Amino acid sequence: MSQLLHGAESHLGWLMGWTTLLFFSSMIGWTWWAYAPSRRGLMERASQIPFEEEL
């Protein structure tokens, strides 16, 4: 019985490791996309949205 539980914990560890790697790489990719030099103008315009007045 303990071998069966140890096997499940082992698979869960691998799953958690891959999930962490997936989320970390997604975060790095998203950050790179957001701060890419080609996006600078878009981000500057978006940062001004709260200050625009609607009449």
Helix and strand content put the structural class at mainly alpha
Characterize the overall form. Answer: elongated
Quaternary status of these chains? single chain
Straight-line N-to-C gap: 70 Å
Average pLDDT over all residues: 86
Order of helices and strands: HH
Helix share bin: over 70%
Major β-sheet profile: none
Number of strands: 0
Round the Cα radius of gyration to an integer and report it. 22 Å
Strand content: under 5%
How does this model look, in words?
The model has no long low-confidence stretch (mean pLDDT 86). The chain has 55 residues and is mainly alpha-helical. It has helices spanning 2-34, 40-47. It has two helices and no strands. The termini are far apart.
Which secondary structure elements does this structure contain, and how are they paired or packed?
Layout: H1 2-34, H2 40-47
Key features of this structure:
55 residues; mainly alpha; 2 helices; 75% helix; elongated
TL;DR?
With 55 residues, this protein is an all-alpha fold.
